[in-house]
Design a protein that fits this description.
β7 and β8 form a beta hairpin. The protein has two domains: 71 residues, 3-Layer(bba) Sandwich (Hepatocyte Growth Factor); 133 residues, Mannose-Binding Protein A, Chain A, CATH 3.10.100.10. The chain is elongated, with a radius of gyration of 19 Å. It contains four helices and 15 strands. It has 219 residues and is an alpha+beta fold. Helices cover 19% and strands 29% of the residues. InterPro entries: C-type_lectin-like, C-type_lectin-like/link_sf, C-type_lectin_CS, Ca-Dep_Lectins_ImmuneDev, CTDL_fold. Keywords: Disulfide bond.
Length: 219
Protein backbone atom coordinates (compact mmCIF):
# COMPACT_ATOMS: atom_id res chain seq x y z
CA UNK A 1 0.00 0.00 0.00
CA UNK A 2 1.27 3.47 -0.91
CA UNK A 3 0.75 6.53 1.28
CA UNK A 4 1.32 10.20 0.64
CA UNK A 5 2.74 11.88 3.73
CA UNK A 6 0.56 14.79 4.82
CA UNK A 7 2.99 16.14 7.43
CA UNK A 8 5.33 18.97 6.45
CA UNK A 9 7.68 18.70 9.43
CA UNK A 10 9.41 15.52 8.30
CA UNK A 11 12.41 14.70 6.17
CA UNK A 12 13.40 11.69 4.11
CA UNK A 13 16.72 9.93 4.66
CA UNK A 14 18.02 9.73 1.07
CA UNK A 15 19.47 6.50 -0.30
CA UNK A 16 21.04 7.75 -3.52
CA UNK A 17 21.32 10.65 -5.97
CA UNK A 18 17.94 11.53 -7.60
CA UNK A 19 17.32 10.26 -11.13
CA UNK A 20 14.95 11.31 -13.90
CA UNK A 21 12.08 8.78 -14.01
CA UNK A 22 9.20 9.03 -16.47
CA UNK A 23 6.31 8.82 -13.99
CA UNK A 24 5.27 8.62 -10.35
CA UNK A 25 4.30 4.98 -10.88
CA UNK A 26 7.75 4.15 -12.28
CA UNK A 27 9.36 5.84 -9.28
CA UNK A 28 7.20 3.76 -6.94
CA UNK A 29 8.16 0.57 -8.80
CA UNK A 30 11.84 1.46 -8.51
CA UNK A 31 11.40 1.78 -4.72
CA UNK A 32 9.52 -1.53 -4.65
CA UNK A 33 12.41 -3.27 -6.42
CA UNK A 34 14.66 -2.14 -3.57
CA UNK A 35 12.26 -3.41 -0.89
CA UNK A 36 14.18 -3.91 2.32
CA UNK A 37 16.10 -0.65 1.97
CA UNK A 38 13.67 1.74 0.21
CA UNK A 39 10.71 2.71 2.39
CA UNK A 40 9.98 6.18 0.97
CA UNK A 41 10.48 8.35 -2.09
CA UNK A 42 9.96 11.86 -3.45
CA UNK A 43 8.73 12.58 -6.95
CA UNK A 44 8.75 15.95 -8.72
CA UNK A 45 6.06 16.36 -11.38
CA UNK A 46 7.92 19.21 -13.10
CA UNK A 47 11.48 17.86 -13.22
CA UNK A 48 10.52 14.13 -13.14
CA UNK A 49 13.22 13.60 -10.52
CA UNK A 50 12.74 10.47 -8.43
CA UNK A 51 14.49 10.44 -5.05
CA UNK A 52 14.55 7.17 -3.11
CA UNK A 53 14.86 7.11 0.66
CA UNK A 54 14.78 4.95 3.75
CA UNK A 55 13.11 6.17 6.95
CA UNK A 56 11.12 9.38 7.31
CA UNK A 57 12.20 11.31 10.39
CA UNK A 58 11.15 14.54 12.14
CA UNK A 59 12.74 17.63 10.57
CA UNK A 60 13.71 20.98 12.04
CA UNK A 61 10.22 22.37 11.50
CA UNK A 62 10.50 23.36 7.84
CA UNK A 63 9.41 21.41 4.78
CA UNK A 64 12.09 20.10 2.43
CA UNK A 65 9.58 19.65 -0.41
CA UNK A 66 9.23 21.81 -3.50
CA UNK A 67 5.67 22.88 -4.48
CA UNK A 68 5.61 20.29 -7.28
CA UNK A 69 6.96 17.44 -5.13
CA UNK A 70 5.17 14.72 -3.22
CA UNK A 71 6.61 12.57 -0.45
CA UNK A 72 5.41 8.98 -0.29
CA UNK A 73 5.96 5.92 1.87
CA UNK A 74 5.32 2.23 1.45
CA UNK A 75 3.88 2.16 4.96
CA UNK A 76 7.15 1.24 6.70
CA UNK A 77 8.15 4.79 7.61
CA UNK A 78 8.87 4.61 11.35
CA UNK A 79 12.32 5.29 12.73
CA UNK A 80 12.51 2.91 15.67
CA UNK A 81 15.65 4.62 16.95
CA UNK A 82 13.39 7.58 17.84
CA UNK A 83 11.01 5.27 19.76
CA UNK A 84 8.41 5.14 16.98
CA UNK A 85 6.64 1.84 16.40
CA UNK A 86 5.14 0.56 13.17
CA UNK A 87 1.87 -1.28 13.82
CA UNK A 88 0.23 -3.14 10.95
CA UNK A 89 -2.50 -5.55 10.00
CA UNK A 90 -3.49 -6.98 6.62
CA UNK A 91 -4.97 -3.74 5.30
CA UNK A 92 -3.41 -0.83 7.20
CA UNK A 93 -0.22 0.44 8.77
CA UNK A 94 0.36 3.28 11.20
CA UNK A 95 3.37 4.86 12.85
CA UNK A 96 2.81 5.52 16.55
CA UNK A 97 4.56 6.72 19.69
CA UNK A 98 3.32 5.36 23.04
CA UNK A 99 3.66 7.20 26.33
CA UNK A 100 5.08 5.36 29.32
CA UNK A 101 3.42 7.70 31.84
CA UNK A 102 -0.17 8.77 32.45
CA UNK A 103 -1.57 12.26 31.93
CA UNK A 104 -4.94 13.99 31.64
CA UNK A 105 -6.59 14.28 28.25
CA UNK A 106 -5.59 17.86 27.40
CA UNK A 107 -1.96 17.30 28.35
CA UNK A 108 -1.93 14.14 26.24
CA UNK A 109 -3.35 15.94 23.19
CA UNK A 110 -0.82 18.76 23.52
CA UNK A 111 2.06 16.33 24.02
CA UNK A 112 1.28 14.68 20.69
CA UNK A 113 1.08 18.06 18.96
CA UNK A 114 4.46 19.00 20.43
CA UNK A 115 5.87 15.89 18.75
CA UNK A 116 4.34 17.04 15.44
CA UNK A 117 1.86 14.18 15.69
CA UNK A 118 -1.74 13.88 16.83
CA UNK A 119 -3.42 11.59 19.32
CA UNK A 120 -4.44 8.27 17.80
CA UNK A 121 -7.68 8.53 15.78
CA UNK A 122 -9.10 5.10 14.84
CA UNK A 123 -11.54 6.45 12.25
CA UNK A 124 -11.65 3.23 10.25
CA UNK A 125 -12.23 -0.38 11.24
CA UNK A 126 -8.66 -1.19 10.14
CA UNK A 127 -7.11 1.36 12.47
CA UNK A 128 -9.57 0.44 15.20
CA UNK A 129 -8.44 -3.18 14.93
CA UNK A 130 -4.79 -2.15 15.25
CA UNK A 131 -5.50 -0.15 18.40
CA UNK A 132 -7.62 -2.93 19.89
CA UNK A 133 -4.73 -5.36 19.44
CA UNK A 134 -2.37 -2.96 21.23
CA UNK A 135 -4.74 -2.56 24.19
CA UNK A 136 -5.27 -6.30 24.56
CA UNK A 137 -1.56 -7.02 24.19
CA UNK A 138 -0.47 -4.44 26.78
CA UNK A 139 -3.54 -4.75 29.04
CA UNK A 140 -3.69 -0.97 29.46
CA UNK A 141 -6.31 1.71 29.01
CA UNK A 142 -5.36 4.51 26.59
CA UNK A 143 -6.72 7.91 25.64
CA UNK A 144 -7.63 8.29 21.97
CA UNK A 145 -8.21 11.50 20.02
CA UNK A 146 -11.99 11.73 20.36
CA UNK A 147 -14.11 13.95 22.63
CA UNK A 148 -17.34 15.92 23.00
CA UNK A 149 -15.82 18.78 24.99
CA UNK A 150 -17.31 21.54 22.81
CA UNK A 151 -20.88 20.21 22.52
CA UNK A 152 -22.24 17.41 24.69
CA UNK A 153 -22.84 14.17 22.77
CA UNK A 154 -21.29 15.58 19.59
CA UNK A 155 -18.00 13.69 19.29
CA UNK A 156 -15.18 15.04 17.15
CA UNK A 157 -11.79 13.63 16.13
CA UNK A 158 -8.84 15.73 17.29
CA UNK A 159 -6.80 15.55 14.08
CA UNK A 160 -9.23 17.50 11.88
CA UNK A 161 -12.32 18.22 13.98
CA UNK A 162 -14.52 15.92 11.89
CA UNK A 163 -17.63 14.38 13.44
CA UNK A 164 -17.84 10.78 14.58
CA UNK A 165 -20.22 8.91 12.28
CA UNK A 166 -23.32 7.74 14.17
CA UNK A 167 -23.28 4.23 12.69
CA UNK A 168 -19.58 3.83 13.45
CA UNK A 169 -20.22 5.14 16.95
CA UNK A 170 -22.54 2.20 17.66
CA UNK A 171 -19.81 -0.22 16.61
CA UNK A 172 -16.92 1.10 18.67
CA UNK A 173 -18.39 2.08 22.05
CA UNK A 174 -19.11 -0.44 24.79
CA UNK A 175 -22.80 -1.29 25.44
CA UNK A 176 -24.66 1.64 27.05
CA UNK A 177 -21.73 3.94 26.36
CA UNK A 178 -21.06 6.82 26.11
CA UNK A 179 -23.17 7.73 29.15
CA UNK A 180 -21.62 11.01 30.41
CA UNK A 181 -21.74 9.64 33.96
CA UNK A 182 -22.45 12.40 36.52
CA UNK A 183 -22.41 14.87 33.64
CA UNK A 184 -18.62 15.01 33.63
CA UNK A 185 -17.37 12.57 30.97
CA UNK A 186 -16.27 14.22 27.73
CA UNK A 187 -13.11 12.37 26.68
CA UNK A 188 -12.86 8.92 25.11
CA UNK A 189 -10.51 6.09 26.01
CA UNK A 190 -9.99 2.43 25.30
CA UNK A 191 -11.18 0.81 28.51
CA UNK A 192 -10.61 -2.82 29.46
CA UNK A 193 -13.63 -2.77 31.81
CA UNK A 194 -16.01 -1.00 29.41
CA UNK A 195 -14.52 -2.48 26.26
CA UNK A 196 -13.70 -1.27 23.75
CA UNK A 197 -14.46 2.46 24.15
CA UNK A 198 -15.85 4.46 27.04
CA UNK A 199 -16.25 8.16 27.78
CA UNK A 200 -14.34 9.27 30.85
CA UNK A 201 -13.48 12.31 32.93
CA UNK A 202 -10.93 14.38 31.02
CA UNK A 203 -8.95 15.08 34.19
CA UNK A 204 -8.24 11.36 34.68
CA UNK A 205 -4.66 10.25 34.09
CA UNK A 206 -4.11 7.63 31.39
CA UNK A 207 -1.35 6.65 28.96
CA UNK A 208 -1.85 7.88 25.40
CA UNK A 209 -0.73 7.07 21.88
CA UNK A 210 0.39 9.58 19.25
CA UNK A 211 0.06 8.91 15.53
CA UNK A 212 1.94 10.17 12.50
CA UNK A 213 -0.52 11.52 9.96
CA UNK A 214 -0.65 9.94 6.50
CA UNK A 215 -3.23 9.76 3.76
CA UNK A 216 -3.53 7.44 0.79
CA UNK A 217 -1.87 8.81 -2.29
CA UNK A 218 -3.88 10.93 -4.74
CA UNK A 219 -0.90 12.89 -6.10
Amino acid sequence: MLFRVSEVNVAMVALEVPEVITSLTSCAIRCHVLAGSCFSFKYNLVTSLCSLGSWIVPSNGTSSLQPSEGLFTTGAFCNTSLNFTLETNETASVCIWMSTKSYNYTTSVNSCLARRMHMYTPKTSDKFSIMTSIVIRLQKNFWIGLDDIEVENVFRWVDDGSLLDNNYRKQIFAPNQPDNHNGSEDCVAYNLKYFPLNDGTCSSALPYICEKGTTESTF
